[in-house]
């Protein structure tokens, strides 16, 4: 593949994609969502810059002290720390609570599809791991995965965030 896509070509493409999404990233960082905070509110910038600094810090610590979990898990750790920081910077139900009955049916369909996707992901992962899928223990695992998916979607709704979607790309 290097003959067809040398590092110069792939690097240029990644750089171009990064430049094309830079405007969107800065707008999201400045908080252009919703009528509550003005564009460029200090708490929005503070939250974004805190998370970015944490990512760089974790990656630097992992590289300097040869801690591979810090390098590979920098994004996960910083998403967690950014969320905890946001609990103090932002309020749950920031945009209010409203109920539109016309959206109930599409949301029910979306949650059912999300649950089916989660069950398929769990089953495929178990089969590729050579674990039995026709037993009570696997049913408990699948039930826990579905409850986790539902709970994370509930938290996303409370904090006005997009719902979490389970996604795996299984290749044999």
List the helices and strands and how they pair.
Blueprint: H1 7-30, H2 42-64, H3 68-72, H4 74-89, H5 104-128, H6 136-158
Helix pairs in contact: 2-4, 5-6
Membrane topology: Multi-pass membrane protein
Main location: membrane
GO molecular function: xanthine transmembrane transporter activity
Written account of the structure:
There is one protein chain. With 172 residues, the chain is an all-alpha fold. Among the domains are: 31-89; 101-158. Helices cover 67% and strands 0% of the residues. It contains 6 helices and no strands. The protein has helices at residues 7-30, 42-64, 68-72, 74-89, 104-128, 136-158. The radius of gyration is 20 Å and the shape is globular. The model has no long low-confidence stretch (mean pLDDT 78). One of its GO terms (cellular component) is plasma membrane. Belongs to the nucleobase:cation symporter-2 (NCS2) (TC 2.A.40) family. The chain crosses the membrane at residues 45-62, 69-89. It is found in: Membrane. Keywords: Membrane, Transmembrane, Transmembrane helix, Transport.
């Amino acid at each position: 593949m290097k003959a067809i896509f040398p590092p110069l070509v792939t690097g240029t493409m990644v750089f171009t994609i990064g430049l094309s999404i830079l405007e969107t990233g800065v707008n999201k960082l400045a908080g252009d969502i919703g009528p509550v905070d003005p564009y460029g509110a200090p708490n929005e910038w503070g939250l974004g810059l805190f998370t970015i600094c944490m990512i760089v810090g974790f990656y630097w610590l992992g590289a300097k002290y040869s801690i591979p979990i810090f390098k590979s898990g920098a994004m996960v750790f910083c998403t967690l720390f950014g969320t905890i920081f946001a609990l103090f910077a932002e309020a749950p139900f920031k945009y209010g609570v409203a109920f539109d009955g016309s959206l109930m049916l599409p949301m029910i369909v979306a949650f059912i599809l999300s649950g089916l996707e989660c069950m398929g992901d769990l089953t495929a992962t178990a089969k590729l791991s050579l674990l039995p899928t026709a037993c009570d223990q696997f049913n408990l695992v699948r039930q826990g995965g579905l409850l986790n998916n539902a709970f994370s979607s509930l938290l996303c709704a409370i904090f006005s965030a997009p719902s979490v979607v389970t996604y795996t790309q299984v290749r044999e």
